Each structure stands twice: as C-alpha cells, then as structure tokens.
C-alpha cells in the first residue's frame, strides 16, 4: 500500500499538469464501517484526484434520483451531512470537481432501462438530478448504469442510454 501511495504521489502531478482526469470513488457507507476500515469525508485528500465521485444515489420508484442513505448523506434528523461535507472539499482545492454517482453494481438494469426508455420518465429523472446537484453543490453526475441490456435491461438500452446522456449533458450545460 505504501508503494502504491508513493507511486501515485509521483504520477499525480504530471497527470494534473497534463490535463488528464483522475477520477476516484468514495463510498458514503465507509463512514460507518468498522475500524480500521472507517473512512470519513475529512480523511479524503482533495488533491489526490481531479474528480471525486460520491457513491451512491439511486433511482426511486418514481424514476427520479433518490438519496439512498439519508442518515449518512443529509443533515436532517441528526444525519452525518455527507453531501455537504463532501462538496465542501472544493473549498480546500478550488480545482476539484465533485460528482454524485447514481447506480452501482447492486442497482441492476431494470429501473435504468424503464426510465431511459420513456421520454417523460427521462425528463423527470433529469430534472430531479439537476435539483439535487444544485441543492448540494455537486459539479456533475456519474451515471453508473452497469451492464445495460442485461440484468433486467432491454436490447434498446444502448440507444436510450445515449439519449439519456445527451439530455443530461444539455441540462448540465444549458
């Protein structure tokens, strides 16, 4: 592990200087992992990566983005304020991009497939994404739809994925 960190320390400056992207994921559930595996927001080195992904948000029964772990992600009812603390890392590194990751390996394809295949559901999803990103000061979204077309997906997922990505891009840059 030490060797990896040393090598990363040698490679990172050249990656950043060259305009390359170094994306890293942080699992919110690591805040409550048993020691020695606990890893809280303030332990993240905001200079290690160019883009930090907060994992994970989900897609709700209404096909809109949903907070999966309110007790970790939000401040309400004594929550751990994960979203706010995570995006506050940009105060330490002004060049850092913080992104919210939705999906992940455990989410399957069926819900993504249904949402992406219906223009009205897609629009509702995109609008809910924009509202959540804005509310918590995230710079973007990482759509972690693993294995489209299988695990409950459909053959047309490829085209629907492209359409969804274009609509998200337009909303983010509109």
UniProtKB/TrEMBL annotation:
Single annotated GO MF: chitinase activity
Claim: Secreted is one of the keywords in the record: no
Keyword Isomerase assigned: no
InterPro entries: Chitinase_II/V-like_cat (IPR011583), GH (IPR017853), Glyco_hydro18_cat (IPR001223), Glyco_hydro_18_chit_AS (IPR001579), Glycosyl_Hydrlase_18 (IPR050314)
GO cellular component term, pick one: extracellular region
Keywords associated with the record: Glycosidase, Hydrolase, Signal
Pfam families in the record: Glyco_hydro_18
Residue ranges of every copy of the GH18 domain listed in the record: 20-174
SUPFAM superfamilies associated with the record: (Trans)glycosidases (SSF51445)
Gene Ontology BP annotations: carbohydrate metabolic process; chitin catabolic process
Gene3D superfamilies tied to this protein: Glycosidases
PROSITE patterns: GH18_1, GH18_2
Residues annotated as signal peptide: 1-18
Homology family: Belongs to the glycosyl hydrolase 18 family.
PANTHER family in the cross-refs: CHITINASE (PTHR11177), CHITINASE 12-RELATED (PTHR11177:SF317)
UniProt protein name: Chitinase 3B
Organism: Hirondellea gigas
